[in-house]
Design brief:
Layout (H helix, E strand, L loop, with lengths): L6 E4 L12 E2 L2 E2 L10 H18 L3 H13 L5 E4 L5 H9 L7 H19 L6 H8 L1
Parallel strand pairs: 1-4
Antiparallel strand pairs: 2-3
Helix pairs in contact: 1-4, 2-4
Amino acid sequence: MLRRAPSLSHASISNDLHRAVTVHRGVPDHRSRKRWFTPAAVKIVDEGLDELRAIVGPRSADLIRVALWACLERCERAAVLVGFTSAAQVRTNLTCLGARPAAELIARARAVMAAVQARLDSGGEVFLDEQAGAAR
């Protein structure tokens, strides 16, 4: 059932950003502060994405398509904010949407990623520097 209130989703697509903390001109970006980009967390995300690929398909576009639809179908006035690091990524984000996947497929994908999120959340605070500050 679609709700009428507008909705904005963000952080819906990782586009393999989980694989490494990006270093730009020798300076780590904001992800270097997040526990989600540590090797242990990346392993959890990779395991979840492997499970998701078995359900939705092996290509990045398959993952993006289901992630976008999982956000868009939450309400009739939904907007999804996605990031990109290249023109190719923008092209993929804009062209992979296709037909709406079956509700069962979206539900299975949500269940997989909810389990990933729960595993990540069980490890404590997201920001590593906040953990260090609390220990003082």
